[in-house]
Amino acid sequence: MIVLGLESSCDETAAAVVTADGTILSNVVLSQVEEHAPFGGVVPEIAARAHITQMDRLVDQAMREANITFSDLDGVAATAGPGLIGGVLVGLMTAKAIATVADIPLIGVNHLEGHALTVRMTDGITFPYLLLLVSGGHSQILVVEGVGKFRRLGTTIDDAVGEAFDKTAKMLGLGFPGGPAVEKAAAKGDADRFSLPRPMSGRPGCDFSFSGLKTAVRQALENLGDTVTEQDKCDLAASFQKAAVDSLLNRLKQALKTYRDEYPDGTSLVIAGGVAANRYLREKLDELSHKKGYTLVVPPPKLCTDNGAMIAWAGIERLRLGLTDELDLAAKARWPLDPDAEPAPFAGY
Ligand code: ATP
Ligand code: MG
Ligand code: FE
What we know:
Layout: E1 2-7, E2 12-19, E3 24-31, H1 33-36, H2 44-66, E4 75-81, H3 85-102, E5 106-110, H4 111-122, E6 129-134, E7 139-146, E8 149-155, H5 161-172, H6 178-186, H7 211-223, H8 230-262, E9 268-272, H9 279-292, E10 295-297, H10 301-304, H11 309-320
Parallel strand pairs: 1-4, 4-5, 6-9, 9-10
Antiparallel strand pairs: 1-2, 2-3, 6-7, 7-8
Helix pairs in contact: 2-3, 4-11, 5-6, 5-7, 5-8, 6-8, 7-8, 8-9
The protein binds adenosine-5'-triphosphate (ATP), magnesium ion and fe (iii) ion (FE).
Adenosine-5'-triphosphate binds near residues 136, 162, 179 and 180.
């Protein structure tokens, strides 16, 4: 079984070809970093236009690198949401056109399911597993019970952790995208110099909050006055990273209690999404997993951030179960993985 996967929900245009045994035949990712960098964040209209300009070429490149033609495909998958609607439409419409001309099934993939199932492609792990999904738009703890079967244990009540990394980088003038820039600066900094809050730590439940931490970084920066040295920036980046990771760990410990009671056979703890590329987070989670008797599974960094291979793989998982879509499938800006979960509660401060 061979599937082409397209991704265009945010600021990466991506196309990849993957087989049912998890072999990635091609995986082409074009980042729009340069287009958005002057604005310090993703501009939806610029993103949509860049996806339109690049998608055909990327599909062509992915097919050539995989050395196949459309007639070799068993299906074509595209992110159908959630994300910036203009971008999602580009990938989905391209996939519909390919499905029509090649007469193959269309599979509309939830972008978050793409992140969530990547470890099954890279490590072949079985359901269920506990997932910490941390990306630019989401911070959630989910039990992954099967394809399309998710139980959300916790979510952010305000910002996503990736967003906090991006905003911190912007405040410190470290550039865009923020996550890798903060990580690099943090490696040269003293994580104990600034005392920053660990939002939600010690509270019941598994929900997150990151906006207070972001504000605390801004205040710490203001307190430094007019002359902020490179070392100050590195120390603040390191202090922020430690606080953010501490707070993720605290919430995950809570979730592990529930998970252990309800799924005593589960042995895997998985991190996915762009922030999972962070080495400090990986190290800390590895320690926690060992201590609690779980195995930590993390995709390679290149497959943590947005890519087409994760969409192609989710397409394969769905195609195998006969979960294909009609050509009138709509693109969705919002699309929760666990539709039964309550909306994020606001805990108050
Ligand atoms: P979503 O998946 O929620 O729709 P997205 O697709 O924009 O959002 P991803 O591409 O999965 O998000 O991840 C991008 C996010 O990951 C950004 O916020 C970025 O700063 C963060 N990120 C990437 N690398 C690192 C890193 N090394 N350390 C911390 N954060 C990182
Ligand atoms: Mg991105
Ligand atoms: Fe993503």
